[in-house]
Write a structure and sequence with these properties.
Belongs to the zinc-containing alcohol dehydrogenase family. The chain is an alpha/beta fold and 411 residues long. The protein folds into 2 domains: 216 residues, Alpha-Beta Complex (Quinone Oxidoreductase, Chain A, domain 1); 165 residues, Rossmann fold (3-Layer(aba) Sandwich), CATH 3.40.50.720. Helices cover 29% and strands 18% of the residues. The strands form 3 sheets. Strands 3, 5, 6, 7, 8, 15 and 16 form a 7-stranded mixed sheet that branches. Strands 11-10-9-12-13-14 form a 6-stranded parallel sheet, sandwiched between helices. Strands 2-1-4 form a 3-stranded antiparallel sheet, with helices on one face. Helix 5 packs across helix 6 and helix 5 crosses helix 13. The longest helix has 13 residues. The radius of gyration is 22 Å and the shape is globular.
Length: 411
């Protein structure tokens, strides 16, 4: 099969990879029909190289058609259309029973002290082949696979794999609807959904992003938008009686652009040999913290900060005096996908499309053009907000130009 593989920092390529097979009774194999590029994939692309191996198949937002199932998978059968959550969870352990499948005790990667294994996401999370491929083996499919309908486009369902439940959990952690004002920092895919969900649940939502196209898209859903300038915090405080919003949701994470020290540290570590870089990231890693510090500064006293953006630093400095003095709540964590999908399924099937799942994708490309998609998404070129790779699209053949033949000369 063809699959997107990590080859080095800022270098992915589509290569031949082994076809997946059933390895355990709870496995399934699906034929992928859509697979998205996630902001978290950029962490592999830019930062987490020390935990990657050239040739790793990446990607963790897939859906498709069931091709084969193990004997222990009974709720789906070949031919069913399914969405695959990015977390690999058993559904039976103590953590799963407490609605925390992202902490699944069956698949925890104990070697690195991390939670449940993830599809296509480095040694830190199990080095399981991912879903940016023509076919995918789904471990623990008996719990994870979500059967969906056949009438609606893939985009109605695809984001149940990750970014939609991630946004839903982050808004729930922010205390909406109890909290009535919510700021969303970062209007990428997760931030767009977070802002829309906040509005859907009745909050007044402010969105902050430096990219005009992202602000314009959020405005269509009733979000009050701001660019990222020195006066933004003051402007939002003025709109919230001088106190600040009830909750701030950080949908940026360690990719914050206004963090020169953290950015330099990430770049330098990414260029070191793996044997040196891994211990540094595990014990002394520092994130780009501009978005988090903005959230802590902006939120009102007694308010809540919810982290949807991914952080990976082991030694990131935190303003604990301010956090304690302001009596803040801080909530975060890898998304517990299957704990939220039953609530979300009716919303993505609603003809009114209240969360706008039908308009988030700006670029749909053949799988073979994955490198183009990663470059577009990283650099935010061409109005890029969300890229979906489609293994079913056959790229147009490249036609070589016809050589020019000089006319025959007569003498």
């Amino acid at each position: 099969m063809r699959a997107v593989t990590w080859q080095g920092p800022e270098h992915v390529s589509v290569e031949d990879a082994p076809d997946p097979i059933i390895q355990q009774p709870t496995d399934a194999v699906i034929r992928v029909t859509s697979t998205a590029i996630c902001g978290s994939d950029l962490h592999l692309y830019e930062v987490l190289g020390p935990f990657m191996t050239p040739g790793d198949v990446i990607g963790h937002e897939p859906m498709g058609i069931v091709e084969e199932i193990g004997a222990g998978v009974t709720h789906v059968r070949p031919g069913d259309r399914v969405v695959v959550p990015f977390t690999i969870s058993c559904g039976r352990c103590t953590m799963c029973e407490q609605a925390l499948p992202s902490q699944c005790e069956t698949t925890q990667v104990t070697e690195y002290g991390t939670g449940a294994a993830l599809l296509g996401y480095s040694k830190l999370y199990g080095q399981v082949p991912g879903g940016q491929a023509e076919y995918l083996r789904v471990p623990h499919a008996d719990y994870g696979l979500m059967k969906v309908g056949t009438e609606l486009p893939d985009e109605n369902y695809l984001f149940l794999s990750d970014i939609l439940p991630t946004a839903w959990q982050a808004v729930q952690y922010a205390g909406v609807p109890e909290h009535r004002t919510l700021v969303v920092l970062g209007l990428g895919p997760v931030g767009q959904f977070s802002a829309r969900i906040g509005r859907h649940l009745g909050a007044r939502v402010f969105g902050v992003d430096p990219v005009p196209e992202r602000r314009a898209l959020a405005e269509r859903y009733g979000i009050e938008v701001f660019d990222l300038s020195e006066g933004t915090v003051g402007e939002i405080r003025e709109e919230t009686q001088g106190r600040g919003p009830d909750a701030v949701l950080d949908a940026v994470g360690m990719e914050a652009e206004d963090s020169p020290v953290g950015g330099l540290a990430q770049t330098l570590v990414g260029k070191l040999p793996d044997v040196v870089a891994r211990p540094l990231m595990e014990h002394a890693g520092v994130d780009r913290l501009a978005a988090l510090h903005t959230a802590l500064d902006l939120v009102r006293r007694g308010g809540t900060v919810s982290l949807a953006g991914v952080y990976g630093g082991a030694a990131s400095p935190m303003p604990l005096l301010t956090m304690f003095d302001k009596q803040l709540q801080l909530r975060m964590g890898q998304c517990n996908v299957r704990s939220w999908t039953d609530e979300l399924l009716p919303l993505v099937e609603d003809p009114a499309d209240p969360l706008g799942v039908g308009d988030l994708v700006t670029h749909r490309l053949p799988l073979e053009e994955a490198a183009v998609g990663y470059d577009l998404f990283q650099k935010k070129h061409d109005g890029c907000i969300k890229v979906v790779l489609d293994p079913t699209i056959v790229p147009a053949p490249t036609i070589a130009p016809t050589p020019t033949i000089a006319p025959t000369q007569t003498h």
